[in-house]
Amino acid sequence: MTPLAALDYYEPWWAQLAKSxxxxxxxxxxxxxxxxxxxxxxxRMQARYGPNxxxxxxxxxxxxxxxxxxxxxxxxxxxxxxxxxxxAPAISILTAVAAxxxxxxxxxxxxxxxxxxxxxxxxxxxxxxxFAFGAIAFYGLVLGGWxxxxxxxxxxxxxxxxxxxxxxxxMGLSLVGVIFTAGTLSLVEIVExxxxxxxxxxxxxxxxxxxxxxxxxxxxTPFDLPEADAELVQGYMTEYGAGRFALYYFxxxxxxxxxxxxxxxxxxxxxxxxxxIDPPGWVDPIVVLAKIFFFLFLFIWIRATxxxxxxxxxxxxxxxxxLPLATVNALVTAIVVVST
Amino acid sequence: xxxxVFFVASLGAIGGAVGVVALRNPFYSxxxxxxxxLSLAALFLLLRAEFVAAAQVVVxxxxxxxxxxxxxxxxxGADRPVRTTGPGLGLAAPLFAGxxxxxxxxxMLGSGLKAIDAQGAPYEAGFGSPGQIGExxxxxxxxxxxxxxxxxxxxxxxxxxLARRRRGLEEEGLEDVPTVxxxxxxxLEPGVGTQAESGGMLQDRRERDERExxxxx
Lengths: 340, 217
Known about the structure:
heterodimer, A: mainly alpha, 10 helices, 2% strand, B: mainly alpha, 9 helices
C-alpha cells in the first residue's frame, strides 16, 4: 500500500514508526551540536574564545539561543503577504527534514527477531528523491524573500533562485558518475557497491564538484550570496524574527547535515570502514555519524578560510567551469564503465 | 488510505488548475501552477510511477517553475493584474477549450468505458523503475527519445546564441573596472592581510627597512 517503499522483506509498522522517530530525534539533536561546533571552531580559527558563558565551556549556548528566539514576539512588516510569509520557513524545514528519510545509517539488521533496515526508506529512485525535495526547498527561500515585501529580502531571494538553478545542474551531473559505476540509484545499494573501494578514489572529480555545488546549495560561504550580510543585511530572511527565523536557521543547518550525509554515503562508503574492517552492526550508525561530522568540520573550516565570491564570479564559475567539468566526468565514466 | 490521498491530490490538481486561470495576480497564478504540478506528482506516486513523480517535481515544479517565478517576480506586475488582450482572445479561448473537451470525451467514450468496473491493470514488480524506463527509451521509443534530445539541444544552443554578448558592447566602459583573480592573492606583498598588518607591526617593519636602506642612522 505504501507507494514509496520497495521492500523485499517484511518490516512491521512499529519498526517503521520507531526508526523514523529515532532518525529524526538523533539528527535534530545534531543541529545544536553543529551550532556549538561552528561557533567554537570559528572562534578558535579567528584567535578568540567563542561562546564560553552559558553552562560548562559555553556548551548550553545553542539551547539559550533557541529558547530566546522561541519566546520572542512574532512580528511581520506591513508590506508583507501574511499567509506566504508564514508558510515559507515551514517549507524550508519540511524539505530539509524529508530528505533525511533516504540516508542509510546501516544495512538490514536483526532487532528483537525482526529485520529492520537502518534507514528511513530505500527507494528505487534514490538520489532523485533528494533532488525532488531540493527543488521544493527553493520555494521556501523565494517565497520568504518575496512575501517579506522588502527589497533586501527580494534581492536575496532572486540570488537564491539563480544560484540554486545553476548549481543543481552541476550537482546532478557530478553524481551521474557514481550512478554509472554502481549501476543503481538506491543509496543502500550504492554503499554496498563500495565494498573494496570508496567512490572518492575513482570519482574524485565528481566528489570535488559535488562538494563545491553542495556549498552553493546550502548557501554557505564562499557561496552565501543569498544572505550576504555585507550587502543584503541578511538576504531572504532579513524580515524574519523569533520562531520563524529559528526555523530558517534550523533548516540551513539541517541542509548542511543532509549534504554531509549524502556526500559520505555516495563517496566515503557510508557505514563501511576501510581496509576490510568489519565491525559489529551497532558500530555502523556511529561510523556514518563520524563521517558526517568530518564533512561538517570541512564546512566550518571553509567558512573560516575563504572570502565570499562576487556574484558574476559565482555564476560564471558554476556554468563555465563546474558544468563542463561534470559533463566530461560523466562522459569519461560512461566510456570506462562500458569498455570494462 | 490510498483513496484519501487520491481525493486530496485530485482536488489539489483541479484547484491548482482553476487557480492558474482564475487568479488575477500573475505571481499567485504561478504558485497555483506549482501546486497543480505537485498534486499531479502525488497522483503519479499513487500509480507507483515513482520515477515519473520525481521527474515531474524535479523538472517541472523545480527547474521550469523556478524560471516562471523568477521572471514574474522580477518583471513585477504583481500590482498590475493581467488583462485579456482583446475581444478576439476572449471568444477564441473558450471555443478551443470546448473543442478539446469534446475531443477528450470522444476518446474516452470510444473505449466503451469497459474499464469502469474492472480492477485495473495488475501491478508487476519493477514497473516504473528507472531501469525499466531507461530500457524502453533505448529500445521501443528510441526514435522519439533521440528526436526530443535534439530538440532540447537546439533549444539550448539557441538560448546561448540569443543571450551572447553582441559586438560593440563588450569592452564599453569595462576597461577601468578592476578585476581580481585568485592569482592576485599570491602577488601581494608578504604579510598583507595578516594580523601583523592590522596590529601595525608590518608598517613598523617596513619603516625600519626603509630607514636601513637609506642608511639614516
